[in-house]
């Protein structure tokens, strides 16, 4: 019973000390100004679902093309306010664009034997090119495709070039915007027999 | 003795799931890369060396080796970037690792060194550093390569010429019903270094009061020497607009803070304002004569009744 007053006093002092510490801590937290800084690096992402496109055995009585999962779907992202650009570049034979074979050397020109910018392919006439469409995938700014590559007409292709051509572009940040490219080819009855190949490069840069 | 039916069923299920996964994951395994920064700007003296780091990430679902390649770039007559192989100038100055191996989703800070020779021509030099995984080998006739590029803008000191002007400035419409106009600026870079014209566009009424101020080229579009660059400004006015307005464009560019200015007049005829104006015309010019005529008619009628 005699200890009761001292216990009460000690408890009160303890509570007071704890309260002061908590108060001081709170003041410290409230009084401190924490400056948070963060840097987001401007970056560009380029991604293609396929590493090859197979047109199969070409015949003069048909137009060959890729479709579905055989198409090249390229998606690009950039977090720069100026947007970004996707270009397409053809290796061809280093002089002209097209599907090439080496023994003997022959080229199925893109988009036509005369290397026109565009062509509507028909069976029996040499031609090679691509058709591109944008999808609803991704977010951010919208992308635009040039008319050259985005014709909705069957077999109307845009010619590839040995210099980079714009395939799609944005004027603002985009995330995973996609362009699906189908590859088309047609040959004539006099097209040189052989194994044809080509390399198409899809490149992404900021604007 | 045959395999138990349940075990066989489990194996078939496992095979089916693996097959499905393979089908789902195959498209992810082609080619994907992220690079940064999107743009690299370096000011340097001849004979100096610059060093830094580039960002590279393997976005693919498996380990890849990435290879750099450097090309010079310029702008063609259509305003598009033209990339060309040129090992004589800027491409030769850049030193990068021959390759970088990265596990799936791994990223790296890649060191680079740029050694500018003593005899480097003063002015702007422009390159792109491409990063791509090794060229694919497959059964298809058409091999597909995917790459992402870092644009490099180098300014070598010396006889620098900063010169440019506004070639054209206009809006898409001279008369508008609502205050919405897309302005276009065509800026010509006549110097030997890249320029980034920036400034503001002020919408001013006939009394000289500034109604709105819009930033021009806030993201810093770069215009290369000897080329034209288009700058777009979309304006959608907030508040009441009616009458004649002037769009005043003021640009600043270059390290010497050169300026260029241009103006364009336009007229806003908002439907509400047009209605109020029509009403005012009616009240001021049409209503009084009618009222007078009516008064005369009332007086005449009253006289006749008397």
Report the major sheet of chain A.
Answer: 7 strands, antiparallel
What name is given to the CATH topology of the largest domain in chain B?
Immunoglobulin-like
* Poorly predicted residue ranges of chain B: 10-29
Total helical segments of chain B: 3
Percent of residues in beta strands of chain A: 35-45%
- In CATH, what is the class of the largest domain in chain B? Mainly Beta
Q: What does the average pLDDT of chain B come to? A: 87
CATH superfamily of the largest domain in chain B: Immunoglobulins
The interface involving the most residues is between:
A-B, 49 and 42 residues
The number of domains of chain A is: 1
Residue share in helices of chain A?
Answer: 10-25%
Strand content of chain B: over 45%
Oligomer: heterodimer
Summed up, the domain count of chain B is: 2
Radius of gyration of chain A: 32 Å
From the N-terminal CA to the C-terminal CA of chain A, the straight-line distance is 85 Å
Structural class of chain B: alpha+beta
Rg for CA atoms of chain B: 33 Å
Corresponding CATH architecture of the largest domain in chain B: Sandwich
* Backbone shape of chain B: elongated
Task: Describe what you observe in this structure.
The complex is a heterodimer of chains A (207) and B (306). Chain A is mainly beta and 207 residues long. Chain A has one helix and 16 strands. In chain A, strands 1, 3, 4, 8, 10, 11 and 15 form a seven-stranded antiparallel sheet that branches. In chain A, strands 12-14-5-16 form a four-stranded antiparallel sheet, with no helix packed on it. Chain A is elongated and about 115 Å long. With 306 residues, chain B is of the alpha+beta class. Chain B folds into two domains: 120 residues, Immunoglobulins (Immunoglobulin-like, Sandwich), CATH 2.60.40; 106 residues, Immunoglobulins (Immunoglobulin-like, Sandwich). Chain B contains three helices and 18 strands. In chain B, strands 2, 4, 5, 7, 9 and 10 form a six-stranded mixed sheet that branches. Chain B is elongated and about 115 Å long. The N and C termini of chain B lie far apart (132 Å). The interface between A and B is large, with 49 and 42 residues. Strand 2 of chain A pairs antiparallel with strand 10 of chain B, so a sheet runs across the interface.
């Amino acid at each position: 019973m005699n200890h009761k007053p001292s216990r009460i006093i000690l408890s009160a002092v303890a509570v007071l000390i704890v309260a002061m510490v908590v108060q001081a801590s709170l003041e410290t937290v409230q009084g401190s100004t924490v400056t948070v800084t963060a840097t987001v690096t401007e970056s560009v992402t380029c991604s293609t679902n396929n590493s090859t496109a197979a047109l199969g055995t070409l015949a003069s009585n048909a137009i060959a093309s890729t479709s579905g999962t055989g198409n090249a779907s390229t998606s690009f992202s950039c977090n720069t306010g100026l947007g970004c650009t996707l270009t397409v570049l053809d290796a061809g034979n280093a002089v002209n664009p097209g599907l090439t074979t080496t023994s003997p050397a022959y080229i199925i020109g893109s988009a036509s034997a005369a290397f026109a910018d565009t062509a509507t392919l028909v069976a029996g006439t040499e031609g090679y090119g691509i058709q591109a469409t944008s999808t609803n995938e991704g977010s951010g700014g919208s992308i635009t495709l040039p008319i050259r590559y985005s014709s909705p007409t069957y077999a109307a292709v845009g010619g590839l070039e040995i210099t980079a051509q714009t395939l799609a572009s944005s004027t603002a940040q985009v995330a995973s915007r996609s362009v699906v490219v189908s590859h088309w080819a047609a040959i004539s009855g006099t097209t040189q027999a052989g194994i044809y190949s080509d390399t198409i490069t899809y490149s992404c840069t900021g604007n | 003795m045959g395999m138990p039916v349940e075990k066989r069923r489990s194996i078939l299920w496992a095979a089916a799931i693996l097959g499905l996964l393979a089908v789902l994951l195959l498209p992810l395994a082609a080619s994907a890369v992220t690079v940064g920064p999107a743009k690299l700007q370096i000011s340097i003296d001849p004979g100096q060396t610059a060093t830094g780091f580039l960002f590279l990430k393997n976005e693919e679902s498996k380990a890849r080796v990435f290879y750099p390649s450097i090309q010079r770039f310029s702008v063609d007559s259509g305003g598009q970037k033209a990339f060309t192989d040129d090992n004589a100038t800027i491409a030769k100055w850049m030193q990068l690792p021959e390759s970088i191996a990265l596990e799936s989703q791994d990223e790296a800070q890649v060191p680079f060194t740029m050694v500018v020779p003593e005899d480097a021509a003063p002015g702007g030099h422009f390159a792109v550093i491409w990063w791509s995984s090794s060229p694919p080998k497959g059964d298809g006739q058409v091999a597909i390569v995917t790459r992402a590029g870092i644009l490099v803008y180098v300014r070598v000191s010396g006889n620098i010429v900063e010169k440019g002007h506004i070639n054209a400035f206009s809006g898409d419409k001279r008369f508008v019903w609502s205050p919405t106009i897309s302005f276009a600026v065509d800026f010509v870079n006549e110097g030997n270094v890249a320029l980034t014209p920036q400034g503001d566009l002020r919408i001013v009424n006939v009394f000289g009061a500034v109604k709105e101020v819009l930033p021009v080229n806030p993201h810093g579009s770069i215009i290369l020497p000897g080329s034209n660059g288009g700058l777009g400004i979309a304006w959608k006015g907030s508040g009441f607009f009616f009458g004649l307005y002037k769009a005043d464009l003021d640009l600043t560019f270059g390290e010497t803070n050169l300026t260029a200015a241009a103006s364009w007049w336009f007229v806003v005829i908002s439907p509400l304002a047009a209605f109020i104006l029509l009403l005012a015309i009616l009240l001021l010019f049409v209503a009084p004569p009618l009222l007078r005529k009516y008064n005369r008619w009332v007086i005449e009628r009253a006289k006749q009744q008397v």
